[in-house]
Amino acid sequence: MSTDQPAVGSIFDLYKIGAGPSSSHSIGTERAARRFLARQPTPPASVRVTLFGSLAATGRGHLTDQGIRRALDGIPVEIVWDTDAGNLKHPNTIRFDALGVGGRATNSWTVYSIGGGNLRDDSGPVGDDEPARYSHRTVTELLALCEAQGLSFWQLVEKTERAPWPRLETIWEAMEASVRRGLDSRENFLPGPLKLARKARTTLLRGRDLASPQRDLALLAAFALAVSEENAAGGTIVTAPSCGAAGVLPGMLYYYHTVKGLPRRDILEALATAGLFGSVIRANASISGAEVGCQGEVGSACSMAAAAGAQLLGGTLRQIEYAAEIGMEHHLGLTCDPIEGYVQIPCIERNMTACLRAAECAVFALLTDGRHLVSFDDVIDVMYRTGADLQSAYRETARGGLAELWRRRMSGQSKAGAATAAPAEHHSYCD
Q1: In this predicted model, what pLDDT tens digit does every residue of 275-329 receive, in sequence order?
Q2: Residue 241 gets which letter from DSSP?
Q3: Is pLDDT larger for residue 270 or for residue 89?
Q4: Residue 422: pLDDT above 50?
Q5: Which of 43, 72, 96, 354 has the fewest CB atoms within 10 Å, i.e. is most exposed?
């Protein structure tokens, strides 16, 4: 397991409000650029930014360069895309060089965008990350603590975090707003060369006319799609635990709040519990697709949403843990292979299916007494080891899987000419 943190950190390290489409490639890199500029005693004549590994491989589709230029506030920027992943301490590595008038480097900084918008350099965590607050590192230990003290998971969060409820209110309001914007959007297509059609609004409108349980599935799908499409369009979302997986948890919570009518306080408590499970994953493994594949992003989001759903259904501590375990276990090995580097295919529909799976995990866990053979912590350990074993082509480099399939298809089309191009519906909906 990862040993970067001595214990589980604050849930507010996990939930960050920012612009998509990627927490590591967009939010993290923009934060790094702002921090680098703030470190300079005087504004440099120009800045050279070298993006390594995954940041170079998929950064254009993730709008990495745009965020960096925005953060450097008009200073001339040279961006170098170095896709060589050899000997990197982290696949999302950035080097900033402040340049004088003659082009000579006056100051340099190497930093790593480790997922969820968080940063680390060779001295440790960077920025406004809150210190580790929880006394234990695993859910097994936290569960035992809650049982001994008669606490629920959300009460442990309340007891441990600094003024959590107003902050969770802000996070939930941002999540709600992202769902509503996605549902209300009249844009037919998402930005980028794929011309991928938005589906959230039509899914909502068609789903309302169905009878349950199909209606419930359609609404869950619409809510998750809405956030994911907003993220893909560069809209403001909440990392949960990342931008690429930002639709799963809000989709679940929005459903229980607006369709099932659960009060806002219940939603905030579920958000607290989900954040605790996500923080355990971050402390013991990774939430970065570039490091462990999409199992660390959508798999983690499904696990968090399953825990939240089980709590909202009235589950016990052990049933909540079981739901979270199922959510992650059945995403093990999930690759990160975005077509053209855009957080669209397979990312958007993957958020939708993970939201549906999370709802199923929560329901099933409550049909049991919560006892099971493989613990949540065991699965997180396996997830991290599996991610380390994944070939780099399947860890957000757009060199394998669906990305490679698409590249070969487009290459064949360019050679054969427009007459042999794939049908338009394949171009828009291939997943």
Answers
A1: 999 999 999 999 999 899 999 999 999 999 999 999 999 999 999 999 999 999 9
A2: S
A3: 270
A4: no
A5: 43
Q: Where are the alpha helices (DSSP H) in 85-239?
A: 139-149, 153-160, 164-184, 200-207, 214-232
| CA distances to 79, 204, 288 from 304, in Å | 36, 24, 15
CATH architecture of 21-126: 2-Layer Sandwich (3.30)
Written as six digits, the tokens of 220 are 């869950």
Backbone angles phi, psi at 191, to 5 degrees: -65, 155
User: What is the distance between the alpha carbons of residues 247 and 298, in angstroms, rounded to a whole number?
Assistant: 9
Question: How far apart (Å, rounded) are the C-alpha atoms in residues 218 and 207?
Answer: 5
pTM above 0.85, yes or no: yes
Gap between the Cα atoms of 294 and 290, Å rounded: 8
Tokens 């397979």 belong to which residue? Answer: 346
pLDDT at 173: 98
Distance, CA of 424 to CA of 184 (rounded, Å): 25
Cβ atoms of 340 and 192 closer than 8 Å:
yes
Q: For the packed helices 264-284 and 164-184, what is the interaxial angle rounded to 10 degrees?
A: 100
User: What is the residue extent of each domain of the chain?
Assistant: 21-126, 139-402
Cα(299)–Cα(282) distance, integer angstroms: 12
Give 363 or 73, the one with higher predicted confidence: 363
Better pLDDT: 398 or 120: 120
Predicted confidence at residue 418, as pLDDT, reads 43
Exposed/middle/buried for residue 337 (C-beta within 10 Å: 0-12, 13-18, 19+): buried
Check: CB of residue 285 under 8 Å from CB of residue 1: yes
Amino acid identity at 231: N
pLDDT tens column, 239-270: 999 999 999 999 999 999 999 999 999 999 99
Order of strands across the sheet with 93-99? 77-82, 46-52, 93-99, 105-115, 118-121, 124-126
